Amino acid sequence: MLISVFTPTYNRADLIHRVFDSLKVQDFRDFEWIIVDDGSTDNTADTLEVYRKTADFPIKVYHQTNQGKVAAINRGLNMAEGELFICFDSDDWCTQDALSTIAKQWDALGPEGRNAYCGISCLKVLPDQSMVGEDYARMKTMGESYVDRFNRRIKGDKWEILRTELHRHALYDLAAHERYMAPEYAWLKMGRTHKTVFLNKALSIVEYQEGGISLNNLAHRASSPVSAMRFYQLAYSVSDNWGSRLRSTINLVRFAYHAQCASELPPVMKMISAVPGWLLYRKDLSSLKKRPRQGAK
User: Fold this and answer.
1) Which candidate, 1, 47, 172, 222, has a CA 20 to 30 Å from the CA of 278?
2) Which phi and psi (to 5°) does residue 162 adopt?
3) Does residue 108 surpass a pLDDT of 60?
4) 119, 105 contact by CB (below 8 A)
């Protein structure tokens, strides 16, 4: 099997049909759909059972207590049988040729080429077809990595199609009792050793929900500060310029204040980052009071 489409979901029974409807009309059929229901309290389970009985493609469903999206992704990777793993959020949909386009791009690399790549990244658009962030005009289609994308500071959410085997060796290293980690954590780990195909084409359509992670990013990071620190430690290690290193260290110090623990930084970087990190921390506290965290996924 080439593709494992993975959907983590939490109380999205009224929206998850978007994924199902998209998969039903794909012009490529060598895929499975894996859903991890992260403790939903609506009728998600019943909805998924109807899909499982009526679909003409394999569907696997796993129900777990609410642990958050990152834990759901780690679980989904263990269930996946496809060569490629695509995280397809429960409130999104995609173009009819999305999977066939991905398959053609992957096949075009050839056996030796695929060994050098961790996957494909393409663009997302909003329902009105406006771009999420910027396109990939500043990235080469071939020969560059997620580390290059990070250091070039490409803006906006993108759709990632990743080699399952490599992703299993780059799981999200969540701290105990925490629920959130930046998606880039796994991508940067893979980007240190493998390249990515940066496809300058939109295959995914997104509509950000009020209670979703994307619109509540600060609250999720602040509630999982040790995991946030682990991400910024990795970001610091792959940064190739002074500005990127400084941003990473300031954020590392910032979330160290949230975690009430020490940050592991060279003394000079710790000294430079201490004041701006503390100021961001104080700003976070003010912002979180004004906008309490909304529903966990």
Assistant:
1) 172
2) -120, 150
3) yes
4) no
